[in-house]
């Protein structure tokens, strides 16, 4: 067998091919463009790469055009963690020398000696990969929106507490269109105090508000004209300009989040696995899309449910040495899937009687704290999701939590 290792970079890539004995068969320096990709593919074909017997490739990334070209056909591509590759480098040299051609050779030898210990990139469908792009982008946009909202809130505390008091009763506060429109109309507390009831009503209408405009304008007028401490006028004006610059960034982030949310709502229901995923309590379109984005639709990706649970960080890990032994949560995991699992379990507690019973039992009988009990619930439910996807079945409450259904029926009687 022939093994290929690629040390990738922004402009050029180093390629190395070795055989079963570890002998270097070829090495090449290719550019990151269509011409370079053709040279690479021709090099693989020259050494026996075919559709029926493709050469496996190791590379330190799972993204980009180079990876997309390599994944064409049945070729297995292994995304090696750079930290793991650095540890392998010490097996070949103790002098701590490093070079790009040498790293390509190390990657090829990783497949030669330890291919069984590494996982190839999953063979997900194009629709599944497209949903993954949209779901991750939507999640990033929400995080970015929250970060900008926190920055704006911190700035308003320095000179404009009336705005925070005015927007406090509103859900999502500074991210609401009404709040952004009012801040654009009055970037400083002095201007806000001068706003008339008519101007406030006009700002609320521009933001899309339909009901309770007169009462809300009266409330805002009273809050803005309240007694607050002020910065010096020149400083207040400067802070107002800084706030407007940050406000425009927040407005763009809110628009991006809304657009990506609509894109996910359009794409996710088209996937064949959407019906199974949405049948689980606590999973809606956005959260279900995030789960699908991380686990993919390649049924052979995980050997069993335990592998998926470990990948999600839901199952505990044991650390034992000598007489010491401890069971702790996993720190090395898919952070996106783990975050989605936290929200999933939190929602399932109120959406499923069986999930709520399981959570209560972990807290009362086993003494788990909230986070530990919720993680245990996520561990159980993601195992059930694996089973349902493997057998093409939707969620069944009586099968998933038979003890919870019995308890609920007893309480109802």
Secondary structural class: alpha/beta
The main β sheet shows up as:
5 strands, mixed
Number of strands: 7
- Percentage of residues in DSSP E strands: 5-15%
What is the CA-based Rg, rounded?
28 Å
Strand order of the largest sheet: 3-2-1-4-5
Helix content: 55-70%
Which word captures the global form? Answer: globular
Question: Explain this structure to me?
Answer:
- The chain is of the alpha/beta class.
- It contains 19 helices and seven strands.
- A hairpin with a 5-residue loop joins strand 2 and strand 3 (24-31).
- The radius of gyration is 28 Å and the shape is globular.
Summarize the structure.
With 413 residues, this protein is α/β, with parallel strands linked by helices.
List keywords for this structure.
globular; disordered C terminus; 60% helix; 9% strand; five-stranded mixed sheet; 19 helices; two-stranded antiparallel sheet
Task: Tell me the layout of helices and strands.
Layout: E1 3-7, E2 12-18, E3 24-31, H1 34-46, E4 56-59, H2 65-70, E5 77-79, H3 82-92, H4 100-114, H5 126-159, H6 161-167, H7 177-185, H8 189-193, H9 197-206, H10 213-224, H11 233-267, H12 274-278, H13 285-295, H14 305-312, E6 317-321, E7 324-328, H15 335-351, H16 353-364, H17 370-391, H18 397-400, H19 402-412
Parallel strand pairs: 1-4, 4-5
Antiparallel strand pairs: 1-2, 2-3, 6-7
